[in-house]
Amino acid sequence: MAFYEDIVKDQxxxxxxxxxxxxxxxxxxxxxxxxxxxxxxxQKVLQVMRGRIERVKTEGVxxxxxxxxxxxxxxxEVTQSLTAAGKASLFGECxxxxxxxxxxxxxxxxxxxxxxxxxxxxxxxxxxxxRETGGIVEPxxxxxxxxxxxxxxxxxxxxxxxxVAERGGCCADLKYPDWYPEGPPIAPLKAGVY
Length: 194
Known about the structure:
Elements: H1 3-10, E1 14-22, E2 29-36, H2 42-59, H3 63-80, H4 84-97, H5 107-112, H6 116-126, H7 163-166, E3 170-173, E4 190-193
Helix pairs in contact: 2-6
């Protein structure tokens, strides 16, 4: 979405605008935020962001915006695949989030097939008021860590069922190459995503 053009470039009410999607197996998260100008109006920034989302839901995105987003996403996918670690991450993500490692072979074509109508349809499905959580982070002037005890975050309870391991997970045997001198110094490793 063109938050940057609306908020930073045109209206000059923020210094930086950020947006990111965090994919999960079930519900994911789309987050957007801004770093205000020193005299920025917090409510105005939120209003402009919400207005931009509503425009996408009603008018969609332009072909230029869609092409730019797809090119960035395609670049990221290709760049990620250039290293062994990137490929392993891609296969793990496809196995755990998308139903199978073989999805890695179709991702580029799926990105190329996205249309402006797809963007509008998904925006209307997920970017709705009852799914929104908003907040404003404000600095505390004169706050010192010594003034308040840091209790830390509450411990996270381990889920009773590991859904990824339950359906077989993603597992690979690691083997040393034949040319490795004198065999491995330790027992063969078993690795995978569980």
